[in-house]
Structure formats: structure tokens, C-alpha cells
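User: Okay, second chain of the day. Same drill as before: sequence in, C-alpha cells out.
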Amino acid sequence: MTDDPSRQQDRAVTDFVDSLDVEDLILRYDVDFDAPMRQATAIGLLRLAGVHTPDPSSGLRGIARRLGAYWCEMVLADVAYEPLTALRLIEASRPDAERLLADLAAGGGPTGSEAFTAYVVARWYDGVGRVRYRLGSYTAARIAFGTAVGVAADHGVWWARPDLISNHVRARFEEQGQASRRDDGRRAERDFVGPMERARDDIAALAAARGVDLESAPTPSSPARHREFLRGWSNALHNVATALRQEGRTEESLQQSRASGAVSEGLGDIYRKAQSLLNEALCEPGDPTHLFEELRDLGIGPDGRPGPGWPRGRRIARQQLAARRGDAQGLAGLAELLDDLERDAAGPERRSGLDVDFYAYTLGLYSRTAAGLPADGRPGDVVDRWVHMARSVREAIALPVYKRTYSRLMRPVFLRAIGRRVTECDHRQRSLEGLLSLVEESSGRELLDMLASSSPPALGPPSSALPGPVRPAGADGPDRRSTLGSMDDAEAEEAKRLLQEREEQYEQYFLGHPLSSATHDEDIAHQLVQYTLNHPGSCVVRYFRYGGPLDPRMDGEEAPEPDSLGIMVCKGGILTLGRPLPYPEVAALAARVLADIQARFVPQPDTCRSIWELLVAPVWAHATRGEALTHLTLIPTDDLFAIPLHVATEPGGLDPLAARVPLSHSVSVAAFVSRGRHLLKKQLMEDDDDLAALMSTDEAATGGEIAASGWPVDRVHVAGRVPAVLADRIAGTHRADWEGLAELVSVEPEFFVYAGHGTYVERDGGSGDPLLYLGSADRLTQYDLALRVALPRNKLTVLGACLAGQGMRSEGGDVLGFMRSLIISGAGAIGVPLWSVSDGAMVSTVSALLRESRAALDGSDTGVFDVVQTLHDYYRRAVGTYTQLARRIDEMPLALYL
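Assistant: Same drill. C-alpha cells below.
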């Protein structure tokens, strides 16, 4: 009796799968599947063999096979420009990679499998490096490539070393460039050619030692290890060619490119051959059309149907061929390419891999080509295409490393579109709502993305610290703890190193846990109108930037609005567009504030009057019309985040703004209205609310604001130096270190106070980053707060440290610094100082807030605490005792953000 057909088919599949040599397939993947761009074929076979499925009985060898299969998938995701997929693959396979790496380091692993295990571990880390490099995270890429190089060298995987070495050198070069741009804002002159040539020469020496022929063209019958070695050699030659071209040495670059292309030709390596063709075309002194045509047609069969190939290379060729025509037909070719890119952006998975730079460059060519046509032949969709791109890309860049791309490439598009909308605005309500909606769409998006995530991370302490002395009180001035530039050069360098490391940890976390992009609310302006209608006496002022210089890619289009600051006021349901201000005046005012703080600790009276004249006077009549002003909310942008608007003082007057009206700030209309942060103005107090305080460990942090708060000691939790009057009554106190911070956070305190010291690390352009002391052995950065602090029930947080509010401005219009991190962590209303505050003023102000919050209970189990009104009332009392404006300003240390 024979089996039925279905059983026969099952047996045939089983026999086929059993015949697969999975390890041999993985070892040949680079040259026999990746080179001809047939990665999917290998991956299909591996999936069919069930290699990805954990099998405890297979031991370490099975883990190595599974890791190899994941590496193959990572390569395909990288080539297909799908970084989200690649990141998920990395996270899924990381435990296997770390397990095998540790085993190799210990000399473990089953007999006979070390070479295979070492190969897949080296290749996996190389794959991680490629993905990180693609995302622009060059430090992470360099570290991953370095691990790959080390494993290959230590365990005899000589045939993969050329590829790994070349990738490592390139990532190290890009990392240095990124650091130099971060420090001085420009691309420093660096030697790219030298390191690449040295790497090439090292690989040539290795070839001689291993008997690999670098002179003869390889053939499919050459040993697999030799072919893989030669593929890495081709990569090294291509990197040298690229470096030479960037230095303008085109003839030498062409020689290296042709040598690389010859090796790729012998290997059937479509990807590397395409790269060589592209470099040759870019070096060609005459007409490179034939080279771009060859690149476009690479991999296309005789029937005209595309076979395996490098899709991005084909698109580059199409782009260049169309742009070089410069006529209507060329414009049509660019339009077709842009349509392809827009179709690519459909769906969140694809948008995460949108080729941002290529999209922007293609659109720039489209703009310039259109501008070169006769007026009656120019398309009318250029600006609309730019805005469409900016919207698509904003959804594609929910990973932190892409945010820099957004500020560099996309925000200028929005600023220009806003300027166009301002010019066309007829001041009718619907027109103003459309303008405000566009303003909100353009800025504050990263914070909203993070708020849209399910919950903030709460990681353990970082791996490194920044030891150093705590500055004693009075070191920088009477009753002041720090000022700008107070660190010596060595301290500043160490602080910069720490900041960079913690920033990289922050980006690494969100690379592995990418955010979904929060949808823009088209009705946000109408919601603001409804808010002011339903809260009589409330007024919201939205500052926004627009216009500015043309991006070089937009050459040929009409001139935009000048770089300007717009002001939108909403009160009683009525939107009003104020007169525009020249943005350079705003930037100059911010620089003036910074100079005051550097020289005299505090913004000076003349500066505070200038803040009023420039930024408050234009809105004052609108804000005070009609019903009495009971709550003024100011929403800054860009440099305004560093300007202390709350102490703006009308010329001839003595009362700073926050002492004149109940005042708060917010980071965006969307956060204030649709995310409900306006609800933080009034909070329900309960008798079991907790107050947590993180105290600096030196003598200057007396904890006076805690001792004088009136809170019952059983609801007070302290990490650090306990105030003397409370020392014998507070149980469970902790040191002011990471463990102590974690204990405070675990309480989920409704009120959280940092009482200690702040320092400020200056960077390029006068901006910088604040740091808070965490005991005497470390510093707390904005990135630590975002990653390691969760305050889900918080009602008020105060950072009682000098300069904690500085560093909030960004080129993308977002709020940065501790403000962003605290909002992400779940903090309620937030009080931050913007200058080197007086200890006495800080203690008095915070004591008043804490005392009134508890007094709101009035003997009951519950009560209502209005933080905006409380701070306003305190400021009115505090300034009333002084007749000098300088003293009044100094007595108002906190800017309040809802």
C-alpha cells in the first residue's frame, strides 16, 4: 500500500530540508547570495529549515546557526533600506550573540564549531555596525565593527577580515567627523585617505600571508574563502576611491574604482559593481551619461525586466540622467522618481526606511530644473512637493538619530511654508487656525512622539560616572552655587565626554525601541479656541519662527519671508496674529541674557526691560483686552526657551511679568491643550501624597525648603543630606546616588524636589547642556532623566539648581534639556531656573510652593492646589519688599512650565 500524495509531498519537503547544509549556506551567504543580490533565496531556505526556531537540544551549535540566520536577514533589511526591521532583528538575536561572544572569550564551544561560531559572531556584529552606520549612529557602528574585527582576528576568521576592517575604519572616520561638527558646528578638515590606504595595505599584507591572489580576476570556481576575502578587498578599494574623490584626486580615485570594479565583475558582485560605476560617473571629467545609463541598466535582463540589482543605485542613475537633461523631459523624469518615493512612503514600516537624503536631494534637483524652464512651463507643485516631503519624512524619523536630519533638511521647509501662509493670511479665524495648525505640525514633534509611547523607560544606572569635587557655596559669588564657565578646562572636557556618552546611550535605547510618530491633530487650533472660551480670563501666546534663508536645494524659487518671529495670541476664543519681529533681534536678545548670566549671574534690569519691549509689549494689549487676565500662558520656540520671559519688566515699572499676572509657560499648543497639560494648573491634593527630595551632599544644600514645608515627616522621603531638623524623624533615607534616586522614584512621589547644585557645559554657538550633581561622584544629565526616572503620579517637580532650565532650545524648534526629559518622565508642573540663582531666593520660593500645597488640605483628606496662582501670589509678596528692580528679579528664580 502506497502513501497518499500529500504524505509523499511532505516526505519530499522533509528530505530536501534534511539535505540542506545550513552552516555551509551561511558561510557562503556573503559571496553566493549577497553578492548577486539574491539574499531572499538563502533566507527562504533557512526559514524552510526552521533554523530560527529555538531548539534546546541543539546546544551552542544550534544557537550559532540561528545567529547566522539572523545575520542573513539583517543584511537583507539593510540592503532594502528597512532599518526598523533590522533593529527588530538585532534585538531578537542579541541574547544569542552575547552568549556566543562570551563563550568564545572563555574558550568554550563544542569541538570543531569554533570557526563557524566565530564567523557568525563576527558577521553579526558587522551587520549591527552596518545598520547603526546607516542610521547615522557612527559611534555605535564603530564599536560594533570593532567587536567584529576583534573576534575575526582572535579566532582565525581571516577571510572575512578585509570587509570588517574596511567598515571599521570608515565608521571611525565618520564618528570623528560627527564629533567635530558637534563641537564647532562645521565639518573639520580630516584625513580620510590616509586611514583607508593604510587599511588597504594591511589587507594586501594579509592576502600575501594567506596566499590570496589579488592580481588575477576571481572566478566562480575560486575557493569560497578566497572569494569572500576578495569581496572585502573590493570594499577596501572602493573606500579608498571614495576618499580620494572627496579630496578632489579624481584620477587616482578612478584607478582605485576600476580596480574595485574588476574584482566585483569577477565575483558577480552587483552591489559593489554598482558602487564602482557610481564613483566613476562622479569622477568622470567629461560626459558621464554612458556610466549612469550602465548603472541604471545593471541587472536588467534582455527582456527588459529588472533582475537582481541595487535599487538605490538605479534610482541615483535615473535621478542624474533626468537632472542632466535640464529640460521638460528631464523634469518629468524627476517627477516620476519623486512619485516613486512618495509611494514608497506608504505605511509605517516603509516610512521608517525612507531614504531622507536621497528624497531631499532629488526634490532639490526638481526645484532647480523647474526654475530653469520658461515661466509658462514651470509646474505649480514645487512648494507643495516640499511640504509633502517634510510631512512624510517627519513620520519616517521617529528615531532620535534622524531628528538631526529633520532639523537640517525638513524644518526649513516648514519655516518657509509657514512664511508663505503668513503672507497669504487674511486674518480671518479660519485662516489663522490653518496657520497655527501648520506651526504646531512643524515643531515639538519629538516630545509628542515620546508622550505617545506607552510608558517611559526606567533603566538602571549608567556604566560610567564623572567624579569630581562639588563646588562649595560662594565659590562663584555670594550665595550662588554656579555660573556659566565656572568649570576649568579639564572638568569641561570630562563633562563633555560624559554628556556625549549618555546621549549615545539615549539614542541607542530609542534605536532599539523606536517610537511611533504621533499623528498631527488638524483641529489643534480649534481646540485652543475652545480652551480659552471655556476658561474665562485665560490667554495663550504662541511664538513661532518662520521664513529664513533659502536652502541651497531650493535655488531658483521666489524669495521667502525674512527670518522672523511670529506671534499668535488667543483669548476669549479669538485668534490674533501679531506683527512679525526680525528673528536676529530675538537671537541677539538671547545672547544678551547669556552674557548677563556669565558676567553677573542674573539677567540685568535693562535686559528684562528689553525682553518686555521686544516680546511682551506686542501682545499685551491683546492679552489684557476684555475680561481680567487670570492666566497667561507663553509658548516659546528656538532661542526664546533660554530667555526668562517671566521677569520681563515694562519700562518705567518695577513689577516683572510673573508678579503682575498669574503666568505659566508650555512647550507647545498640542502639549498644553490636547495632551492636557493645562489641567496641571489645579491639582487635587490628598493627605497621602508623597514629597521626595534629592539633596546634594555638601553643606550648602541645607534642605530648608523641605524642613519649612509643613509636610508630615511620614510623607517625606529624602536621598542625600537630611535637614538637621528632620534627621531624627525621617526613616528610610538614602545616599544621593543612583540607588537613592531609584528609591525616591519607586515611591511615585506627587511632589519631587532636587535641592543641590547645577553646572553648565558650554557647546558651540553659545548653547550648552546643564548638569546636576548626583552626590559627589556623578552628574545627572537630561538623558538620565529620560531613561531612568518615571514620575507617573507627579503634580509638581522643581529642579532647585542653577541653570537647570538652560539648554532647552534646539534647531528643530523642539524643547530639549531637563524640561523635555521631565515631561517624558511624567512630571506634572515643572519649575526650573534659567540663571545662577540665589540660594535664599530658591529656598523661599520652593518652601512657599510646598507649604501652600499642603495647606490646601486645610485639615481635610483632600483639597485643591493651584500652582500658577500660588507662585504668582508668592512673587507679588516677595518683590513687594524691595524697591530695586535688580533685587526683585533675583527673588523670582523659577520659570513655571505646565
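The chain has four domains: 16-186, 191-285, 297-396, 427-898.

User: Thanks, on to the next one.
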